[in-house]
Structures are given as structure tokens and as C-alpha cells.
Design brief:
The protein has 126 residues and is an alpha+beta fold. The protein has helices at residues 29-35, 82-85, 89-92, 117-124, and strands at 8-9, 14-19, 22-27, 38-43, 49-50, 55-61, 65-69, 74-79, 101-105. The chain is built from 4 helices and 9 strands, in the order E-E-E-H-E-E-E-E-E-H-H-E-H.
């Protein structure tokens, strides 16, 4: 199970990465493996402000449809357009090419309830 040290994680299996390119959100390797083959991603919040914990879209897999929850409050400023034709990028590269949205956060210090890699590893029992 791949759990990068440089990310923060939610109890709902989303990840958050802040770097020089921006703030990105996706689902974890654990989540994509539990869902199975991802066939469609529906982001309903592009251009909207979303409050921490709110759903920002859904991911549809062969096994189930699951809501996606925002890890910190902010405006959804971009959606990974590559997922329109290749939703399976979330399966093959969940932390890289399979990112789902880019976020303009209200406050980057609002990450107090997010888990580091060790705590997320413990959460999923890996």
C-alpha cells in the first residue's frame, strides 16, 4: 500500500498535497483499491466554495459509487480534465496523474484534523 509521507489524509480516504504548483486533492491508494476499477468521476463543485467535510463530487467504480469530501475549506479552481477520458488514472497513479481537483484554500493552517502518513497507515491497518 502506497502512503506518501508528504501528503495529509482524511478519515474518508482523500489526500491533500500542497506544493509550489498549488493545492491538490485526490483519493488514496487504499480507497481506489477498495473501490475497484474506476469508470467515472463527477465533480459538481468547479468554481464553487466548498466547506471542509462537504461533498465536492463522486467517484463511480465497478463496485460502488462513493462521495468525495473536501479536506479543507476553499474554492475548487480546477478539475483534472484527463480523468474525463482516463478515469482509471486514479487507479494507476492516485497521487500523481490521478489527482482530482485543485483547491484555492481559505486557510492552509486549517489542516488540524488531517492525518499524517503514520496515522493514516494506522487508520487503515496497513
Amino acid at each position: 500500500m502506497n502512503i506518501p509521507e508528504n501528503l495529509r489524509y482524511t478519515h474518508d480516504h482523500e489526500w491533500l498535497r500542497a506544493d509550489e504548483k498549488g493545492v491538490f486533492v485526490g483519493i488514496t491508494d487504499f480507497a481506489q483499491s477498495e473501490l475497484g476499477d474506476i469508470v467515472y468521476i463527477d465533480i459538481t463543485s468547479l468554481g464553487q466554495h466548498v466547506t471542509k467535510g462537504e461533498a465536492f463530487g463522486t467517484v463511480e467504480a465497478v463496485k460502488a459509487v462513493s462521495e468525495l469530501f473536501i479536506p479543507i475549506s476553499g474554492k475548487v479552481v480546477a478539475v483534472n480534465e484527463n480523468l474525463n477520458n482516463q478515469p482509471d488514472l486514479v487507479n494507476s497513479d492516485p497521487y500523481g496523474k490521478g489527482w482530482i481537483i485543485q483547491l484555492e484554500p481559505d486557510d492552509m493552517n486549517d489542516t488540524g484534523n488531517l492525518l499524517d502518513a503514520a496515522a493514516y497507515t494506522e487508520l487503515i491497518g496497513a
